[in-house]
Amino acid sequence: MYKRKHxxxxxxxxxxxxxxxxxxxxxxxxxxGNQDYDMNIIVELPKNTEVPKGMVWISGGEFHRGAxxxxxxxxxxxxxxxxxxxxxxxxxxxxxxxxQFAKFIKETGYxxxxxxxxxxxxxxxxxxxxxxRPHDSILRPGSLVFRKTQTVLPNLYDYSQWWKWEISANxxxxxxxxxxxxxxxxxxxxxxxxxDALAYCKWAGKRLPTxxxxxxxxxxxxxxxxxxxxxxxxxxxxxANTWEGEFPVSNTQIDGHERTAPVMSFPPNDFGLYDxxxxxxxxxxxxxxxxYYSKLNNIxxxxxxxxxxxxxxxxxxxxxxxxxxxxxxxxxxxxxASYRPSARMGTSLDSGMEHLGFRTxxxxxxxxxxx
Length: 371
Description:
The protein is 17% helix and 15% strand. With 371 residues, the chain is α+β, with helices and mostly antiparallel strands. A 4-stranded mixed beta sheet has the order 12-11-9-13. Strands 2-5-14 form a 3-stranded antiparallel beta sheet.
């Protein structure tokens, strides 16, 4: 279990987490087919192997990972594009829901990071020497909640303009103590820190996907397309729960949703996976390292990459971050477009936010061993 460091509190003190990503129009699109793999990639599901309930089999294969050349809105950390290959695996068809997470809590008694008593002695180890202790009103359990602004903002780099530290915000109270998840059992669970996701995975006998597995699955068989459904940007409101309108002032809700949407509200991609674009960001197991893609590009084809061995983010050097994928209901054209499969974000291990959840996978070898 990862040691609790309360980076979500640290974010309030130094506020240096950074946001959404990018958009584009498609280049050459190639459907990923079953090929001859010199690397012995597991492609087909063995005969008579039953797919776990609520999951789908993702056939293994090769793909171009990262942003395509024509993606003019891609961030530097999405490039250079490079070749990767992954073995076949099982993946949840949708994000873990409030109902599923509640069952885990009931059976284990687990307490999420956002609900735990805050320890200043732990927090100050993450801050520059001499940082004064904040007022007790801040050092209380809670999480980051999105708040609309009253006016259009000239500067969208200052995330503190729409993120608020909300005392008592957690997975059961998504916008604070006065809110509940009643009636939202089928929505994705949010305010999930990395160790919360790991605890759920251990209980469920699963794991988090690697970044390569996640992106390969999100592409749904399209290699070189900017979106999980292909190349057409005008399909967005029919394909994903995102922010439509002037961010962060008004959401037109053309897609039918202001914040999270029930899972499976939009069509699945061609692999049978729902919400691989928008709704909530999803944890992966990879360390976030801004130099990692460049190093991979010099190696050539990589099989089942596990990510960088150490984290590195020059914009957030005090944090140890993992890669998030998929974008969320806050991604918009006026601010970002992280509903693309190549989009990525680094977030501290203990950060829980209103638009952050996860889904799980099982490798074939692990599944066979369990049987």
